[in-house]
């Protein structure tokens, strides 16, 4: 009679819950990690840079003073606007502006004039070497030197607080549609003499942006860090606990009967360990050999014995 096939044991409700919970945390850890890596260059790093550059929340008055359209990687060290933050620049448009500080809503005109004089004074903790006169630069590849505009902080007798500042839509100067459209940006700020509000950096006065929303910037930073990082940490903690506690306990319970059988086979009836030189091992081996011989003898058919015996003829029996 053939042995009946053993049917697989269906998983219990707790086993199903454990399986789907583990799978959920594995997927959560993977998606959280990739989401964080994606948000670092596009949200987290620009948000931190915006905070560290300390943009003045009071808008300044900017006027487009110079526009350059350049071609070549060596010439395009920066661009006022570019769609895509990772591609190389082979053609760029650079916009420089002059700006003067705007009026704060909570101060008087006299206080504002004093504030301008203090802000315009030279700062001891800032390096002004980057804003030298463009006349000091050499242009060996150009036959005619373009007439430069003065760049840097102006004195108290000047109308402008800073001239020749670089204009960007945001602190990185790049983005992706539909949030940033460089065609619209250049159409609005490229014409010479255009007046508009802008925000300058207290750390680098030569950096000016057209849009500033510190509340939205902080909110994006919180969302980008508060969702993927805790999700990844919680997933890793659960998976570590499940691996060392839950699944390890199940494996030990499944291996317990096998281990007890192996221990019983390794010891004799007297509880002593069975070795090839022990009396128990010799007795077991002799008993096994005797049982094997008896089994082979019983399975051998009787026809085999009759076919192997010599035939006895009737004539031989009669003559005898």
UniProtKB/TrEMBL annotation:
<feature type="region of interest" description="Disordered">
    <location>
        <begin position="255"/>
        <end position="282"/>
    </location>
</feature>
<dbReference type="InterPro" id="IPR031578">
    <property type="entry name" value="TipE"/>
</dbReference>
<keyword id="KW-0812">Transmembrane</keyword>
<feature type="region of interest" description="Disordered">
    <location>
        <begin position="299"/>
        <end position="320"/>
    </location>
</feature>
<feature type="compositionally biased region" description="Polar residues">
    <location>
        <begin position="306"/>
        <end position="320"/>
    </location>
</feature>
<protein>
    <submittedName>
        <fullName>TipE</fullName>
    </submittedName>
</protein>
<keyword id="KW-0472">Membrane</keyword>
<dbReference type="Pfam" id="PF16972">
    <property type="entry name" value="TipE"/>
</dbReference>
<feature type="transmembrane region" description="Helical">
    <location>
        <begin position="221"/>
        <end position="244"/>
    </location>
</feature>
<dbReference type="GO" id="GO:0002028">
    <property type="term" value="P:regulation of sodium ion transport"/>
</dbReference>
<feature type="transmembrane region" description="Helical">
    <location>
        <begin position="17"/>
        <end position="44"/>
    </location>
</feature>
<keyword id="KW-1133">Transmembrane helix</keyword>
<dbReference type="GO" id="GO:0005886">
    <property type="term" value="C:plasma membrane"/>
</dbReference>
<dbReference type="GO" id="GO:0017080">
    <property type="term" value="F:sodium channel regulator activity"/>
</dbReference>
């Amino acid at each position: 009679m053939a042995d009946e096939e053993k049917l697989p044991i269906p998983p219990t409700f707790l086993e199903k819950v454990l399986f789907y919970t583990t799978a959920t945390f594995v997927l959560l850890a993977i998606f959280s990690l990739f989401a964080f890596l994606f948000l670092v260059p596009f949200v987290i790093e620009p948000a931190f840079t915006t905070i560290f550059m300390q943009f003045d929340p009071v808008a300044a008055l900017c006027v487009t003073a110079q526009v350059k359209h350049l071609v070549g990687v060596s010439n395009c060290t920066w661009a006022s606007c570019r769609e895509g933050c990772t591609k190389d620049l082979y053609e760029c448009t650079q916009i420089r502006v002059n700006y003067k500080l705007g009026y704060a809503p909570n101060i008087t005109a006299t206080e504002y004039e004093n504030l301008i004089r203090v802000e315009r004074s030279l700062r001891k903790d800032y390096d002004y070497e980057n804003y030298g006169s463009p006349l000091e630069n050499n242009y060996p590849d150009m036959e005619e030197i373009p007439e430069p505009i003065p760049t840097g902080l102006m004195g108290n007798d000047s109308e402008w607080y800073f001239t020749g500042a670089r204009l960007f839509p945001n602190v990185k100067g790049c983005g992706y549609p539909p949030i940033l459209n460089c065609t619209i940006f250049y159409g609005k700020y490229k014409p010479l003499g255009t007046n508009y509000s802008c925000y300058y950096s207290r750390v680098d006065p030569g950096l000016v942006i057209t849009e500033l929303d510190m509340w939205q910037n902080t909110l994006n930073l919180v969302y980008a860090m508060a969702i993927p990082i805790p999700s990844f940490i919680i997933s890793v903690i659960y998976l570590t606990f499940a691996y060392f506690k839950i699944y390890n306990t199940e494996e030990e319970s499944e291996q317990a009967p096998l281990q007890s059988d192996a221990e019983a086979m390794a010891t004799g009836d007297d509880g002593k360990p069975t070795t090839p030189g022990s009396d128990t091992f010799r007795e077991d081996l002799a008993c096994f050999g005797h049982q094997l011989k008896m089994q082979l003898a019983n399975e051998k058919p009787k026809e085999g014995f009759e076919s192997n015996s010599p035939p006895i003829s009737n004539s031989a029996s009669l003559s005898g």
